[in-house]
């Protein structure tokens, strides 16, 4: 399968080409705005190129209107779900291809049977009668892959499939990709996690500023050069400089005692000093997210106490937690992080309405002034504070969420997977900001399973199945942390 | 809201917990059945004639016309749109037919067409209104809520205009037939209502068209990606809904042997209430035709019980509003999910 394509003088893609060999897993990397999404929509036939052409296995691509022909050649599993949550898994698989009886009515029984067989063929273990909205991200991706295969497509584009998966699910996804690859399926794998590319891909193509930069086999490309090709400069993900240990006795900004919450976690005890960065490592389902959300007041613990800077906010009350000095970067920015249609200024200052004017009125000028400070401070790329957040790239959106958390000058900053779906450069920047904030005396808690996020921590608490199983000082080894997150004891 | 699926990590915990959830989802269809039975028992205690055949037929007869609006609105709601103008179509379509066919001299009639034309004219007006709605909403991409709100006012005004604010009487026989005939001793409008709902259940549950409506209402991009011609489906749904509203209006006119300038005025609130109580989501992709039917049935049974209990007519309206809210609370309790 060879795909060549050139594209007009547009900004989105400038005469970029890619050639994907059948049976390979091909990585496509590039920073946000490098033209990856444009390429994907051209490869899946959603947009026509202004110039150049797409060829599948030597044949010219079908016309854009011939959706069926496209679907037999290529399928894409997008970050955003293309399933219909209210319908069952079976119906999602065979949507608009329902089995009809001779009266033209849908034969539900045979539809369910076919769907179950399809999933069994590709060993996807999901009950086809469930509403698709109840699947988790991992199951949803498998269902979407199975659906693509059922059309006869043997070329599948995975757009950041691992962004919302935990380590165990990623491992399962990779096993599946390898199995399918052996069965002759070709993958185009888009990811921000370079480690994954080394793990799973044969070939890698780098795009930058709408241009094709290089294509080579993964094995021939050292880590540093790959990052350099993406960034356009010889800058690796800077190894975190040894941080000065926080001054002792600076005061406790967060004290957690005996905290328990349903099945999610039990008997959690820890403290964070002012200026300290503490990592809360754990796989999805380990309780780390629930614990972090309890601290910011999104959930109320069943028992135990939380003290922020010497005062105990009312459990389950976000306003009270904010008032006590908590800044919060939630887990999923699309879900809890911002209001897409509101401006950057409105979003960034959402946590601090009191600073914007008297008597409950909001002064536009004061808001924009504060927003401009935040935009400069976080280097958000935007023409002005009035732009709706949905117009920004992923990295800049995450900066807006960060700005919102920092707007209130928090004493304690809580971040949950703060760099999910963010390009390398923005990631470095965001983590740098975290360090800067800590240097000014704010205590920081980072809940994540992403080792890059945790690298700057002074101390690491590892959670497994709802308990803190390890407390590691800076200088930990990656494999110790991963082992602890997966509940494996290396020394046993 | 696809984001919902990205949430709790606790979800991948116990597969054995998934079974009851399926049953619960199916039960949602029948959520109002216990309430209907309860009202039947209460009604029987309040007044022993409640469960007698005549009274039951009376309930079905009074709801048959408006239930066609519920049927129409359900089709539109499942596809993720709204059509407020249905209540005006309900009045205008038979109004235009009466205007053209009623002999000149009696009221505002023009007498331009013979009486046999009344039914085709009614339905044609329905098609025309639906096509205008679809043109504005689907073709030009205008906000459906506002478009149909505007249409509601325009169409109501047109009916007032052509009738001079008066009521059309002396309707041709063909207009009276469906609303007044008895088939096997039961009013034809009841038969039509039940038949159309049965057809609606099949349409939404068992045809490609119906499932396309759910797909569009649930996630329009996914529906497009699955090869559904979303625009065409929406056109059909909006035009079909208008025609059903016109037919409902025809039944009403036949039943009352007249077309009042205010026919259908305010009905849309009851229609929405019935659909939502019956489990149809206002954001699309959710609900069934059977649920919508139980919704309207429940509302009318309660009204009937109130009348039988001798509640003064002046209080019925306030109680109706309260009932809608109480029914929503009950369906929130039985359905369990937050209503959008």
From TrEMBL, chain A:
Keywords: ATP-binding, Nucleotide-binding, Repeat, Transport. Gene3D superfamilies: P-loop containing nucleotide triphosphate hydrolases. Residues 1-234, 237-490 form the ABC transporter domain. InterPro entries: AAA+_ATPase (IPR003593), ABC_carbohydrate_import_ATPase (IPR050107), ABC_transporter-like_ATP-bd (IPR003439), ABC_transporter-like_CS (IPR017871), P-loop_NTPase (IPR027417). Pfam families: ABC_tran. GO terms for molecular function: ATP binding; ATP hydrolysis activity. This is Sugar ABC transporter ATP-binding protein. It comes from Nonomuraea turkmeniaca.
Automatic annotation (TrEMBL), chain B:
Keywords: Cell membrane, Membrane, Transmembrane, Transmembrane helix. It is a multi-pass membrane protein. Its main location: membrane. CDD domains: TM_PBP1_transp_AraH_like. GO terms for cellular component: plasma membrane. It comes from the Bacteria. It comes from Nonomuraea turkmeniaca. Signal peptide: none annotated. The chain crosses the membrane at residues 30-50, 56-78, 90-113, 119-138, 145-169, 181-206, 233-254, 266-283, 290-309, 315-335. InterPro entries: ABC_transp_permease. It is found in: Cell membrane. This is ABC transporter permease. GO terms for molecular function: transmembrane transporter activity.
